[in-house]
Design a protein that fits this description.
The chain is of the alpha/beta class and 504 residues long. It is built from 14 helices and 16 strands.
């Protein structure tokens, strides 16, 4: 019971420190709430926002045009009402937070105008950016601003382990501030825990993107949506220490070539190198299998001058010349915890924003440079809506930490098993039999983890628990969806992936 351990309260509790979590905390504090922001991160680059390269989309041409592009990139599966929320609030959110509050200096042309760029599946130059490291240039000043706000406390290196629930309402979380858990009660709880990249061997996400918010919400009974739609980015360095090669490179003229030097994307889609991400990712992998490799040819660009941060990463890895070897790599979860237009979940007083949330904006495939915008818009809306509720402490079970610690590599080895399962069976292309095989392996893994976690409160075990729960949810959703759309691509058991994509 809670009377044997220390507890605390906050009007609004935010879990996660990316752009969505910071926006939610800021909006709640502006409305007079006391806000506690918990984050596993110890540095800004532990948050996915810090890794975002391309930029943030605007509606500088028109909201209707951006909406049309989002719907087209999603293969017609995005929720039009959710997209309306995004495009109608886009410019006011950017103006309020990024310009007026944070003073972000986006790249400009020699004439002093914004240097809007274009990425895949966009019909216009509408993306604000800073070099190709936009996330870094937004998140770091945002974190500083939030940390200095008098109504917000930021607590780093702190993980939420469980949601506290009672009769369909979420009352806060149990954190790992104490060995047997530390209850934090809140009037409203906002999950902004990011993505699931750690479920795969190669990802553009930080290593701690273990699906924590999704798993905690699902275990508490919240609905999830579109979780089978996992976007793989087509241009990630194909080597040790992978890194993202921003879609802005292709937007400005970089070209994909196969192992024979041929430009191939026009064989797969009328938009060529700027086709939707799911199409390009599958084409890249098909050409890698057929010709041995795919490279991104940056010779049409003034690469060193226009993209110094990416060029520096290339030099660090010994990549010289204009051709950079690339492969598809896990990048973004298009669905997540099912939420409405204010980030409200199916559980009372629980919100979700950012990549862990399934707003309906992305459907089966996300349009480039909409993730930062979605996190900003929904973060502000959720934070404003979450104020005004009183914390109500309830009885909370004490987590047990009675058994000896497990071997140092125990959780890491189990995680490797999970990642191999996801890589082999729930990756870029999927077969029904392989999805079923993955489900069986993941069920056994979760059973093992549950047995160990009953008497141990180690963070790495909880992350493994969360990853296994999220992976099982993905496998279940994939098995129930028999239609290939966007990122969820079913391969006929009798055909090779190359034959399937060529038939399209």
């Amino acid at each position: 019971m809670t009377d044997s351990i220390t507890t605390e309260t906050a009007d609004v509790l935010v879990v996660g420190s990316g752009i969505a979590g910071c926006a939610a905390a800021l909006a709640a504090a502006r409305d007079g709430a006391t806000v506690l922001l918990l984050t596993k991160a110890e540095r800004p680059d532990d948050a996915s926002t810090d890794w975002a390269q391309g930029g943030i989309s605007t509606t500088c041409d028109s909201p209707e045009a951006l909406k049309s592009d989002i719907l087209a990139a999603s293969d017609g599966t995005a929720d039009p009402d959710a997209v309306d929320v995004l495009v109608e609030n886009a410019d006011s959110a950017v103006e309020d937070v990024l310009f007026e509050t944070l003073g972000i200096e986006f790249d400009e042309t020699d004439d002093g105008e914004f240097d809007y760029t274009r990425e895949a599946a966009h019909s216009a130059d509408r993306i604000l950016h800073v070099d190709a490291a936009t996330g870094t240039h937004i998140l770091r000043p945002f974190l500083n601003h939030v940390d200095e706000h008098e109504r917000i406390e930021v607590r780093q290196d702190t993980a939420a382990l469980e949601l506290i629930t009672h009769e369909g309402r979420v009352h806060g979380v149990v954190s790992d501030d104490q060995p047997t858990g530390h209850p934090i009660f809140a009037g409203a709880t906002i999950l902004a825990t990011g993505g699931i990249g750690a479920l795969y061997t190669r990802s553009t996400n930080p290593d701690d993107a273990t699906g924590d918010g999704i798993a905690m919400a699902a275990l508490a009974g919240a609905d999830v949506a579109d979780i089978e739609y996992i976007q793989f980015h087509p241009t990630v360095y194909d080597g040790d220490d992978p890194f993202l090669l921003s879609e802005a490179l292709r937007g400005e003229g970089a070209i994909l070539r196969n192992g024979t030097g041929e430009r191939f994307m026009t064989d797969y889609h009328p938009q060529g190198d700027l086709a939707p991400r799911d199409v390009v990712a599958r084409a890249v992998e098909t050409e890698r299998q057929a010709t041995g490799e795919v490279v991104l040819d940056v010779s049409p660009l003034d690469f060193e001058t226009e993209y110094p941060s990416i060029a520096a990463k290339c030099h660090k890895r010994g990549i010289e010349g204009d051709e950079i070897p690339v492969a598809a790599c896990e990048h973004f979860l298009c669905g997540g915890i099912d939420v409405d237009e204010y980030g409200r979940t199916s559980l009372d007083h629980l919100y979700a924003v950012g990549e862990c949330a399934g707003t309906g904006v992305h459907g089966a495939n996300r349009l480039a440079s909409t993730s930062l915008l979605e996190g900003l818009v929904w973060g502000l809306r959720a934070g404003k809506d979450a104020g005004g509720f009183e914390p109500q402490p309830v009885d909370t079970p004490i987590l047990r930490d009675s058994d000896p610690e497990l071997p140092e590599r125990f959780a890491a080895e189990k995680f490797t098993r999970l990642q191999q399962t996801m890589d082999e069976h729930l990756s870029l292309e999927r077969k029904p039999a392989e999805i079923a095989r993955a489900s069986a392996v993941l069920r056994r893994l979760k059973g093992e983890v549950d047995a160990y976690i009953r008497t141990r409160t180690a963070r790495d075990l909880y992350e493994l628990r969360n990853a296994s729960v999220t992976a099982l949810l993905i496998a279940r959703a994939a098995s129930e969806n028999t239609e290939s759309r966007g990122c969820h691509y079913i391969v006929d058991a009798d055909d090779s992936p190359a034959e399937q994509l060529a038939d399209d």
